């Protein structure tokens, strides 16, 4: 018990929670933007992998973690182009296209990695930290929280900004209208097609950022199927959070704790089977789903293509 309360243990544990939380948080925010506009992206797992691979390659090539994150965002946008064209513009089945994007993303990134980087066993190293004067010297949590990379703070600000924009701006109102009742948005002079298109592109950027954060900062490497179901967990979190970014942050944090707690307990001597540690995050997600499923609310037009004039 004394080991669990030691300053070193708490510092390492908190830092691990942040590292595990951020990729899921960014991906969930991206999924939230799309779902609020009425677009269900079941391809998020594949898009996240594309973002992870793109971020890894750009960082490895340029040596810049910032450019790696930008590469991940662009990779996510490219990965979401199929959703944009086939779902939003052509009105095809969002579930079928989404699953296809996931399979394609998994296959392409695995093949490219095996062909180009598997033998080299490439690693990116640790990203430069950005200590915050005064706060970084706080005992225990100062090193874990306030000596994070500058990328962490920028990503956190982006998440907060999306929460504000969705809740308090005309763009957020139009986005939610596209998912709640697109005919009303159309009647008010707005463009459902344009609104959903912007949402899908922004969604792809954030999902790509989540993938890039995972490969560039959390693991500092890339392997095939790196996300390990993270995209599908993001879908669950999004549906449970009812479009509220604050709830997305809380549920993502719960997942981060679930991922970090197992290895942390092993380090201080608890004999926990490896399979149980791997299962724990998914058990937490299932329990959360059971407890809060009845209170989850999804936009009425989610997954439905909009046909102007149709009733």
From TrEMBL:
<dbReference type="GO" id="GO:0005886">
    <property type="term" value="C:plasma membrane"/>
</dbReference>
<dbReference type="InterPro" id="IPR001851">
    <property type="entry name" value="ABC_transp_permease"/>
</dbReference>
<dbReference type="Pfam" id="PF02653">
    <property type="entry name" value="BPD_transp_2"/>
</dbReference>
<dbReference type="GO" id="GO:0022857">
    <property type="term" value="F:transmembrane transporter activity"/>
</dbReference>
<keyword id="KW-0812">Transmembrane</keyword>
<keyword id="KW-1133">Transmembrane helix</keyword>
<keyword id="KW-1003">Cell membrane</keyword>
<protein>
    <submittedName>
        <fullName>Uncharacterized protein</fullName>
    </submittedName>
</protein>
<keyword id="KW-0472">Membrane</keyword>
């Amino acid at each position: 018990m004394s080991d669990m309360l030691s300053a070193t243990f708490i510092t390492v544990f908190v830092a691990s929670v942040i590292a595990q939380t951020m990729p899921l948080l960014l991906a969930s925010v991206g999924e939230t933007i799309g779902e609020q506009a009425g677009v269900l992206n079941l391809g998020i797992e594949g898009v996240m992998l594309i973002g992870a691979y793109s971020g890894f390659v750009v960082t490895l090539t340029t040596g810049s973690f910032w450019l790696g994150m930008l590469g991940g965002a662009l990779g996510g946008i490219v990965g979401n182009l199929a959703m944009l064209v086939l779902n939003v513009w052509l009105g095809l089945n969002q579930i079928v296209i989404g699953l296809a994007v996931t399979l394609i993303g998994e296959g392409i990134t695995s093949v490219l990695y095996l062909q180009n980087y598997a033998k080299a066993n490439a690693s990116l190293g640790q990203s430069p930290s950005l200590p915050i004067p005064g706060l970084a010297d706080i005992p225990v949590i100062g090193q874990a929280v306030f000596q994070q990379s500058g990328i962490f703070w920028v990503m956190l600000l982006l998440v907060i900004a999306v929460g504000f924009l969705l809740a308090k701006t005309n763009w957020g109102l139009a986005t939610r209208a596209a998912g709640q009742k697109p005919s009303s948005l159309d009647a008010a002079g707005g463009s459902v097609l344009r609104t959903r298109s912007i949402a899908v592109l922004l969604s792809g950027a954030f999902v790509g950022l989540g993938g890039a954060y995972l490969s560039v900062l959390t693991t500092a490497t890339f392997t095939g199927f790196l996300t390990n179901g993270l995209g599908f967990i993001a879908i669950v979190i999004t549906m449970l959070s009812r479009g509220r970014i604050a709830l997305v942050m809380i549920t993502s944090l719960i997942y981060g704790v679930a991922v970090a707690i197992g290895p942390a307990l092993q380090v201080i001597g608890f004999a926990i089977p490896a399979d149980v540690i791997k299962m724990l995050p998914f058990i937490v997600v299932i329990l959360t789903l059971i407890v809060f499923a009845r209170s989850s609310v999804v936009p009425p037009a989610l997954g439905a293509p909009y046909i102007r004039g149709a009733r």
